[in-house]
């Protein structure tokens, strides 16, 4: 990780309270948001509230970062692609069988 810089940030009180209620560290939330905004290699996923909460807890309370997570994401993508290929193949096979009747 690169050298860090300490800054003061003003945010709405309700944002602060929401982050504290979730048990998250504000610095982790801010770092993650900045990285998402500034990194050209960032992807954005829409997930359930539960998955989002788990992700935020994990990455705001550990020394892990997205690079640590990337091998697991690639593995999930490989499984997803395999599933899509299988489903499409099954669908095409069904269409072929219908055409042969």
Automatic annotation (TrEMBL):
It comes from Halobacteriovorax marinus (strain ATCC BAA-682 / DSM 15412 / SJ) (Bacteriovorax marinus). This is Uncharacterized protein.
């Amino acid at each position: 990780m690169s050298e860090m810089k300490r800054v003061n940030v003003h945010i709405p009180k309700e944002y602060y309270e929401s982050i504290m209620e979730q048990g998250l560290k504000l610095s982790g939330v801010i770092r993650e948001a900045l990285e998402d905004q500034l990194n050209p290699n960032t992807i954005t996923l829409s997930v359930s509230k539960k998955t989002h909460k788990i992700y935020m807890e994990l990455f705001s309370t550990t020394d892990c970062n997205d690079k640590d997570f990337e091998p697991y994401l690639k593995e999930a993508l490989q499984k997803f692609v395999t599933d899509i290929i299988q489903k499409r193949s099954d669908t095409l096979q069904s269409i072929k069988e219908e055409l042969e009747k």
